[in-house]
Amino acid sequence: MYKIKKALNSQKVAPFVFVLPFILSLLIFWAYPLISGIVMSFQNIDFGVKVWVGPAHYLKLAHDKFFRIAVWNSIEYMALTLLLMIPIPLLLAVLMESRLTKAKGVWKVIMYIPALTSVVISGMLFRMMFSEADGSQMNRLLEWFGKAPIAWLKSKPTAWVALLLLCMWRWTGVNILYFLSGLKSIDDVLYEAADIDGASARQKFWYITLPLIKPTTIYVVTISVYAGLAMFLESFMLWNGNSSPKNIGLTIVGYLYKRGIEKNDIGYACAVGVILLIIALAINTIQLVATGTFKKEER
Amino acid sequence: MKSKKILAAATAALMAFSPISVMAESTEASTEASTEGEATAVTTVGPENGTKFEMWSFVDVHNEFYGKMVDLWNKQNPDKPVTITFTTYPYSDMHNKLMMSLQAGEGAPDMCDVEIGQFPNYTGENCPLYPLTDALAPYEDKMVKSRLDVYSQADGTRIGVPTHVGASVMYWNAEIFEKYGLDYKSVKTWDDYTKLGEQLKEASNGEVYLTSVDTGGTDWMWVAMAEYGEDWTGGPDGEVNVELDSVKKMLTMQQQWLKDGIAMVSTDGHVDLEAGYKNISEGKIASFPKAMWFMSRFVNYMPEMKGKYDITTIPVFEDGQKCSVGIGGTGTVVTNQCKNPELAAEWLTWAKCSKEGEEHIWNDLGFDVCNKSLWSDKAFAYDKSNVYNTFFRVMPYEVLNELADKDAIGTVYTTSVSPTLNDYINTTTLNEVLEEGKDVDEALAEAQDYVDMEIG
Amino acid sequence: MTASTAKVRISHHTAGTIISTGLFAIIGFFIAFPLVAGLLASFHPGRELVQNGLSLNLDFKTMTLNNYKYLFGFGGGDSKVDSAKYFLWYKNSLVLTITTVILTLLVCYFVAYGLTMYNFKLRGFLLFLVIATMCVPFEILMLPLYQEVTGMKLINTNAGVILPGLCAASTIFFFRQYMVTLPRELLDAARIDGCSEYGISVRIMMPITKPAFASMAILCAMGSWNNMLWPMLVFRDAKKFTLQIGLNTLLTPYGNNYDLLIAGSMFGIIPILAVYLLFQKYLIEGMTAGALKG
């Protein structure tokens, strides 16, 4: 008994005890479904009857111009959200932390609430604000600048303004939250020491905050890569369904639903899903290797 | 210290196992215990000894209606009572869940509402639904045939029970036409309609559009196809062809309307959306074709329009054509996981096709019923207590009877190619033609190419 | 209010304070606008929103509490939704969210602890697997997972909803990224003091990971409260529905009950906002400088 306890407490065994739940969960809830999912991407499935079709689904995907539109849209969206949703929330978080900002609690709550509102409601609110009707908020804004009203959601550049604003509206507060907790892990002593050395605010940001918040930044990048590539609901909400004019809002997951699940073609849906998995994993692996996250010893 | 150590180790190591048993137990216990106090939340209708069924819908009021029909059935058939548990799910999720459970072979309900657009997913060789041909036989000749056909296999086996006809009709803002002294009632053909539009444009100084054309919906195209007896899906076993004369004529005409300033493009794509209701209630558009069920939108969202709107049949391209088509709908099915499908089918067809059932469908749900034998029944169709009979300037069934007399309701099928087809038309073709003024033939040829490639 | 406090404290920071606070005020205004418009809409008949679009029209004469009356069951026979149902959904969501948050945070914390605080061979590979599971679209897993959970007799149970997502990769990874920055020297000190590996994880490390716990609690609660796809597949009994499932049943192809939907959603924000207010103070606490010198 004592021996077992001692063994369990050794630094060799303990890590495995800690990660056991993950390994179990992986084996039970991931391994089987994922392998079945990949197998299904080579099959046609019609109510229990499975027919092996080889790489047919993938070949079809390779030739579908709408799938290319979807992939391109998703990648574009991911890139744009990374550009917007990392630096801005980071700067806002730093400002929020500084003594300069008053009434912090109020701003934090306001910025966080959008993430809580139901998807249906926020989609409706944005659809109304960006409506092509003359009275919509955005068209009134244009009017105020002396411009004619436009059909915001019918052409890509303006529709994407709406899409990206919706994304920023919903998620800026959440990203700030990540960065705020990251900032908390930085030891105040470092800033005090820098103050003694007479460092400027900018120097402190560049030489202390930015390097030390790197793990949090990497985290936000990692989840944003997948979230950006897998974006679907925002588009669905904005166009009140899975169809947008000339597919300007079609994303990979939207395509997966449209061509797979809504048409009861689960095999095809799985093939699309596998491609999304490959793209997301590839980008994240490159990004994480480049930033050194997988290295044995971080410090 | 020692006990704490053990505790810590135990928590960490057993983390994965403990919740399973604890939670599984507690939830099961609560299911059994909670049947009494929360009776309002779950709707089970029928006696203890009834044959038990589970039924899903995506519309709460449908389930309420079915509940009433269970009570009535049990009164009339004390020898074979049924007890049904009803669950309402969100629309797309219910279909998703139904699909999963039928694919997985377990967990499906006994009966379920299926929206017409989703229906083709369940037809075909390995159809997971119980055939309803026999159960529907007593009602077959009284029902609108085209509505039974759309919920059938290619070989004619009935697998769904329809809810409504969804006959498309013309809605007119009579007040506007009266104001400008224009006569909409004599409009018979699309040419008449176009002329009326020119007059309206002139009379109102271009402030009121005759109608709005849809870039995000195919209702207009369906009407055109029904008029010429065409169908771009090719029917249950035909071939897709979108390059139809009817569609070309309709699109060309609409393009011309836009050019002439007679019509506008529907704000946000079609009129059945917030912006559409606004255009209607503000009198920005004066008429539009839509299915009968659009009446409920007036009652719910535009109550101030009471007494202002009139309903007639839709204009035709050429005299003698059909002028209506059933749009939208819900087919109710019995799944192959049902343990007692004969009884389920018997109850279901009775609930939705009998006079008793149709009375509720018309009065509670506000749908044009599929049982034609009731349309001319005065007590049924012209009861003043029905909200729709007093809301419009005409009683809806007068229009329906006119359609029935002329045998003017056509059919456009919803088949397995429909999602692909509708999607391309709604996202691309209609936008190109109506927003960008692209050549109709060219746009339709591209649509054809795309659909051929997709299904080929 | 902000301007006056700034004036009182005269310092060289005044200009910065005004700019910084002003910036947040502007952003706050744009973020709040749709929210306020939505909130106001919940005090108007649904058809008004549908017809007139959004507005910040604060005309008390036209405002009514009817939507909330319906929601809470004082609407009499007119009510389109059963208030008992609404509160049941509410309660279900609360129970599910609280259980999910507590279990997920504990499990993920310990997994991340193991992944971060020890050097062992499989570590890099396991971390890769964590990242990999973050990149799997749920839609691939949906059908097999449904079959599996059905086979385990977990269908229609809270366990069936919670267990598959218990080891949330994004939560593990967040904890991991947070802990990476913490000095491991603390652990060695505790070991010398005779503390067990598990004791250290609970008594030494957990307290200094508070900000991470706080933000993950907030995020996890949000995710669970808004989660719909999977609970929807697992639950097959209206008694167990969550608020999101219930509210979404108000949207149908035959017309949407905007009145109730908007009131119900606005009221649904409250508990999740409470979670935020409850935990965000731990976010502020952060690390005490003294404890971590080294």
| Largest pleated sheet of chain A | 2 strands, antiparallel
How many domains comprise the coordinates of chain C?
Answer: 2
Number of strands of chain C: 2
Q: What's the arrangement of strands in the largest beta sheet of chain C?
A: 1-2
**What is the ordering of alpha helices and beta strands of chain C?**
HHHHHHHHHHHHHHEEH
CATH homology superfamily of the largest domain in chain A:
MetI-like
Which regions of chain C have little confidence, pLDDT < 50, spanning 5+ residues? 1-10, 76-80, 287-294
What is the C-level CATH assignment of the largest domain in chain C? Answer: Mainly Alpha
User: What do we call the CATH homologous superfamily of the largest domain in chain C?
Assistant: MetI-like
Query: H/E series of chain A, N to C?
Result: HHEEHHHHHHHHHHHHH
Notes on the structure:
- The complex is a heterotrimer of chains A (299), B (456) and C (294).
- Chain A has helices at residues 2-8, 14-40, 56-63, 65-85, 87-97, 104-116, 119-129, 137-144, 156-184, 188-196, 201-212, 214-229, 233-238, 252-260, 266-290; strands at 43-46, 49-52.
- With 299 residues, chain A is an all-alpha fold.
- Chain A has 2 domains: 1-40, no CATH class; 55-290, Orthogonal Bundle (MetI-like fold).
- In chain A, strands 1-2 form a two-stranded antiparallel sheet.
- The longest helix of chain A has 29 residues, at 156-184.
- Chain B has 2 domains: 43-165 and 328-374, D-Maltodextrin-Binding Protein, domain 2; 168-325 and 395-455, 3-Layer(aba) Sandwich (D-Maltodextrin-Binding Protein, domain 2), CATH 3.40.190.
- Helices cover 45% and strands 12% of the residues of chain B.
- In chain B, helix 9 crosses helix 10, helix 13 packs across helix 14 and helix 18 (418-435) runs antiparallel to helix 19.
- With 294 residues, chain C is mostly helical.
- In chain C, 69% of the residues lie in helices and 1% in strands.
- Chain C has helices spanning 2-8, 14-41, 46-52, 66-71, 83-117, 123-134, 138-151, 158-162, 169-180, 185-192, 197-208, 210-226, 229-234, 243-248, 258-285, and strands at 251-252, 255-256.
- In chain C, helix 3 (46-52) crosses helix 15, helix 5 (83-117) runs antiparallel to helix 12 and helix 9 runs antiparallel to helix 12 (210-226).
- The longest helix of chain C has 35 residues, at 83-117.
- Chains A and C meet through helix 2, helix 5, helix 6, helix 7 and helix 9 of A and helix 1, helix 2, helix 5, helix 6 and helix 7 of C.
